[in-house]
Amino acid sequence: MLGFMDYVQQAFYEASHWNHDNSYGALTATAKALLDFETPPGLRLNLSSLSSPNFATSYTVGSVGVVDGSLSYLYSSLPLKTESKSSDIDLYHVIRGYRHAQDLRRPDEPWWWEIWHEGKRIDRRDTLLYGRLFLPRSSLEALYLRRISPTRQLKVSCVSDSSLVNGGTILALLQNDYGKYSTEYLYSTDSALFGFRGLYNFGLDPRKAAKLSTSSTAAENIAIEPTYGRFSAGAELYYGILNKSGGMSTGIRFTTLPQHTGFPYTMTLTVNPLMGNLSTSYAVKAGRSLALCSRFDFNVYSYESDLQMGLELWRRQQPTGTVDWAAKMIRADWKKPSLRADEDISGVLKARVDQNWNIGILWEGRIKELLFTLGASFDLRKRDKIVKGVGVELQYSS
Amino acid sequence: MAFNFNWSPLIADTSRARDMLTTALNKSPKPPIIVDDIIVTELNLGSVPPELEILEIGDLAEDKFRGIFKMAYTGDAFLTLKTRVQANPLNTYLSTKPSFASPQPLAASSGLTIPLQITLSDFRLSGFVILVFCKTKGLTLVFRNDPLESLKVSSTFDSIPFVRDYLQKEIEGQLRVLFMDDLPAILHRLSLRLWSPEYTEMDDERVLNTNKDATVPIDPLASPAQDPVDAFGNPIDESELSSLSLDSPTETHASFSQKNLLRLATLKESQRTLSLFTPSLRDTVFRAWAGGIDRPESAAGTPQLTSSTLSRHHSSLATNSSAHSVSDNSDTGTSSSRPSFIGRSSSYHGLSGSRPRAHPPRQRKKRVVDLRKNKEDGTESVSTEASTPAPSVAGSFEPPSSIPEEKEGELTTPPRSPNKAVRFHSRQVSIDDLDTPKTEERQRHDRAESTNAAINASNALHNALLSDLESKMPLHRHARNAHSTSTLPLLRNYSLEKLSHAKPVPPYAESSSSSSGGILEQAWMMKMANEIARKVREEKMGEAGSDGFWLPSEDVDGPPPAYAA
């Protein structure tokens, strides 16, 4: 489950029309959500609030051995009109599961953002500031996020911690998203690491498609074949100047679009040619409330392999028998005023297992006003200590 | 003078050393590049021993050795390590960074683990070695300088020159750390296991004792370094005292075995030669052990106390062999049962800093000649122990807390000036019938000398009696404990002498007066003490049937010493 601050950041991306998924880093987002979820360690309580559309606070208290916690504050120059009460938050927004690829959105024109007042441009770039202080270990996280232009975003994240080399590290990330393709340039102060990431989407360019639809006639529109899936390819490249070492990988993905009539699925293949690592994943949304995923890793140099499987099961409340007859009599075109997307969801069960019999189980959902995450991880190979960890996380926000 | 270093047993079985090396290598946090345990698969010390040149020998005793050597090694030892390393530099780099500011690469950081086998051979070592051997603390070996001159590293990656050079450099650096830091620790632990298996046993026992006691009592034998505090007259808490006195009955559980006595004898014999071989003695604590700071304070365990007292006797035997008054302790040990031996020894040591010896019931006087003790006098001072009418009183004087007064440091060094000052003060308070303490001491000394010869003969009988009485009177002893902490060793000594001069009076009277302030309390305590003392006296009269001159006097219970208030 996303933390409250991550949820607010997602809301910022949405409000500023930034497609977070159109990036090489998000190529395997579905497989990661289904297989690499983290089980909470120990007990953790989260109290958050979006006190104004621009300001959010969050406090965390945890008990992993000793009591620790964190304070975090977030400021956004863009008013965020999102649900902040934990009783109203859409569970689909905070629980990461199978990611439905959406049609690529045409980026905003730069002049859309211009605001003129008395002959002067007064529009400001949207900015998000975020800070988090961990106690008692006195570690500080800071984030600066700025939408420089409709196709560009700058993200600077810093960590200050006395245990780190040089006392901290800064990562600067410049992201460009043109819809058809996206590029990212990054620099990390740790060992002066430079990086580049790029993603290219095959198929129709959303910018041209938009122009085409506006200029062409209705008859020509029909002639355009609707696309049922999208094929993407990307690569990343890193080089650390100080330690004179680098890394790279390439990857491809095919995913179905909402127009697809069958069940949605996503396939990815990532290759690390330097290290000889191959990773393939296949995720399928088998039903309205079930998603399955498998991943196979293989190293051509060391012949090491790994197989992981996971599933995601959304539990829905059965309609109570007493009002069944009334629900049936409702006219089909009558819309219930308060129906949300996750109205009938009571929780999500996620489970994963790998070939070494490491098992992780996560149960996420909502009780009354609280969002909860209950997780456990097991290692069936170790007879003496099968349970590796159990944890509960509770979130309340207003 | 010659030393015989035996190299062959070292090369015979290296499995234990291998295991220890493995654990030592895996103990410290490994660099992220190493993803598996480091396993030492082969360890061979080679057939060529290192050349050692003795530069200096600082200390040489049967249980101690300190020396400096010049070491040169060009042997054929080799060591093979096996582990797995992470070959992806990005993976190791990211694993140490916080995820918040990490680039979070998609697949560029995927791992590639490679099994790695490294063989280290052709060691060339030369350096100065400081070797300290102590029976208790094991073997400590320190390199004064960096001993590593060169070595040959051969690994799985020998075909890649870059990796080979890198490994050579890294491993040389690591080995330097190993020689300077880790190796001494490993050798130390090995030596502890090898030479003193009792050490671990006693460790266990000590742990058990610690667990049993809610309040951690101070073991006087374990920490004699804290003795000066006692000697200055700083009082110990009542709670600590009670826990101590509760522990003391456990002393009587010990027993002596014929085998250990035999070994003791061998040890004694070995002292006459320069042989480094010292037989391992079970249930024995040596002087050096007692000085260990690392030992838990609680440890009031039986074997410890007994054995340390034994070792004390032994050491005093060694140091005072010139003094004619010292009896042969091993003889008394054999003739007496062990519990009594313990009781006796601890009691005498507790009596004063001048190490009084046993005083049998019939021969009530005994003296000890200490050549080193009283340097302020400039002469060989002899402190006599005017013996109390019965051994039980002496036994009562033996709180465990006062035992550390007899530690090694005090034996060799004269009392410091603050100590002395306090002593004088105490004399003024408690002894008013003496003109000067010194003359009194001299007189006693003279008296003692005459009766000295008979002491040794009657030691055994005395021991038996003493143990008997001790077991009968735990209360008495307890009270004495309280008393002894609030007064100085010398004061106690004097008061005891005073006791011998006059009427029998309870030792507790003093203890109570010194510890309590209320008059009522004092009076009650006096009464109680008197009663108990009478009983004690009667008992002693019955047993010893000796003259009243040496009976405890009443004038002891004067005002308490000011410093102890």
From TrEMBL, chain A:
Native organism taxonomy: Eukaryota, Fungi, Dikarya, Ascomycota, Pezizomycotina
Record's bilayer topology term: Multi-pass membrane protein
GO cellular component, as recorded: ERMES complex; SAM complex
Protein name, as recorded: Mitochondrial distribution and morphology protein 10
Gene Ontology biological process terms from the UniProt entry: establishment of mitochondrion localization; mitochondrial outer membrane translocase complex assembly; mitochondrion-endoplasmic reticulum membrane tethering; phospholipid transport; protein insertion into mitochondrial outer membrane
Protein family: Belongs to the MDM10 family.
InterPro entries recorded: Mdm10, Porin_dom_sf
Location of the protein in the cell: Mitochondrion outer membrane
Cross-referenced PANTHER family: MITOCHONDRIAL DISTRIBUTION AND MORPHOLOGY PROTEIN 10
Organism: Patellaria atrata CBS 101060
Pfam families: MDM10
Described purpose of this protein according to its UniProt entry: Component of the ERMES/MDM complex, which serves as a molecular tether to connect the endoplasmic reticulum and mitochondria. Components of this complex are involved in the control of mitochondrial shape and protein biogenesis and may function in phospholipid exchange. MDM10 is involved in the late assembly steps of the general translocase of the mitochondrial outer membrane (TOM complex). Functions in the TOM40-specific route of the assembly of outer membrane beta-barrel proteins, including the association of TOM40 with the receptor TOM22 and small TOM proteins.
Subunit structure: Component of the ER-mitochondria encounter structure (ERMES) or MDM complex, composed of MMM1, MDM10, MDM12 and MDM34. Associates with the mitochondrial outer membrane sorting assembly machinery SAM(core) complex.
Keywords: Membrane, Mitochondrion, Mitochondrion outer membrane, Transmembrane, Transmembrane beta strand
Domain commentary: Lacks alpha-helical transmembrane segments, suggesting that it resides in the membrane via beta-sheet conformations similar to those predicted for other outer membrane proteins and porin.
Domain of life of the source: Eukaryota
TrEMBL record, chain B:
Basic and acidic residues bias locations: 368-378, 435-449
Tree of life domain: Eukaryota
Renumbered residue ranges of the record's region Disordered: 215-234, 294-450, 543-565
Molecular-function annotations in GO: lipid binding
Biased composition (Basic residues): 356-367
Subcellular location field: Membrane; Mitochondrion outer membrane
Keyword Cell wall biogenesis/degradation found: no
Topology with respect to the bilayer: Multi-pass membrane protein
UniProt domain comment: Lacks alpha-helical transmembrane segments, suggesting that it resides in the membrane via beta-sheet conformations similar to those predicted for other outer membrane proteins and porin.
Functional description taken from the UniProt entry: Component of the ERMES/MDM complex, which serves as a molecular tether to connect the endoplasmic reticulum (ER) and mitochondria. Components of this complex are involved in the control of mitochondrial shape and protein biogenesis, and function in nonvesicular lipid trafficking between the ER and mitochondria. MDM34 is required for the interaction of the ER-resident membrane protein MMM1 and the outer mitochondrial membrane-resident beta-barrel protein MDM10.
UniProt record similarity statement: Belongs to the MDM34 family.
Subunit structure of this chain's protein: Component of the ER-mitochondria encounter structure (ERMES) or MDM complex, composed of MMM1, MDM10, MDM12 and MDM34.
Protein name, per record: Mitochondrial distribution and morphology protein 34
Gene name for this UniProt entry: MDM34
